[in-house]
Amino acid sequence: MAPLTVLMSCSIIEKDCNGDILWTWTYPAVSESQKCIITRKCNVQTEFSSVQSFVCSRHKDNWFYINCSEVFDTDKLPRIKQFALVLFTKDFNPEKYEVLCRILSKMYCKTGNTTEILKLYLSVYINGTCTTQENGIFLSDDFDGERLKNVDGSYIRGLIKTFELETILIYTALLLKKRIIIYHHSLEQLLKWIKTIPTLMTHRRITDTLFPWVDLVSEEIADLKNNLHYVAGCMDSAISKKVDLYDLLVNIPAREITIAPHAKDSFTMTKTHKEIALFIVQLCDNNLTTEPQIISEIAEKTQELLNQLKTLTTIRDNDNSDKIKFCIKKLRECKLSPAVESFLINLAVAENLIM
């Protein structure tokens, strides 16, 4: 069993019966900026009547997971109405950390003792596992490192059914590494949809530039702007006016996709786009295909496109026969339409064929 050294910290934030919120315990430490973003996210949650029990997002290059729990009379937490257990980690794995958060939270409810939480946390950090009477054995190795290969919780059919042929716009934005904003006023729905988007492009590590929940505050906007491309979720409808932050805006409740004026040339539809769009919709219309099959078929279609790109645009390097390089002359000899040629050049850039 491998140690889970990507764990960075564990914290507990309590809300007492008077409504006061206190950051009561942390191991080993959190920075002021980490504390600030967690406090803000918790405050945003309390503004709504229904608190989402588990949420995740990122702060700079790290991930945080917040598990909120109601406290009952049978729990050993007198005068506490609610608490949030917060994990900071170096990796994105919501399924794993939701399980771990719940185990730690249940132990805190049962004992009211942060020493017991520390024991479990250190056990997972050092050994990759912990054991509790109520929850049995937690094994970090049970969860793959690359969670996008596992489509638990994916809603790809729902995504395609919602946008039909316009799904190709999301696909193209991912393919060409554009800046994508997903909007939904419901945090629960936003996190569901944001987790589904990367399944359209499984050959890439979309999680490297995934921001599930972004508030329109200067610090979080600055984090976004440090990336050339990203997929970011937002609950604030004012995001639609921040055209400098996106190339493509996906408004889930309105079922609308908006292309920013400065990015329209990148979304010129060619015959290739139309074929892929039709393929995706027809694939989804077949009720016998499962979510994993839909994702796999789209991935195969993408790979066909990438293979075609390399055939049309690359040659062997004279100095290194194992290396291929982009050749604009070879592409021009194909005498493709300007729109197709431009698309293939942009795709070559996105695939790092043009250095």
Automatic annotation (TrEMBL):
Keywords: Endosome, Guanine-nucleotide releasing factor. Residues 1-355 form the UDENN domain. One of its GO terms (cellular component) is late endosome. The keyword Repressor does not apply. Pfam families: SPA. It comes from the Eukaryota. GO terms for biological process: protein transport; regulation of early endosome to late endosome transport. It is found in: Late endosome. GO terms for molecular function: guanyl-nucleotide exchange factor activity; small GTPase binding. The keyword DNA repair does not apply. InterPro entries: FAM45, Tripartite_DENN. Belongs to the DENND10 family. This is UDENN domain-containing protein. It comes from Microctonus hyperodae.
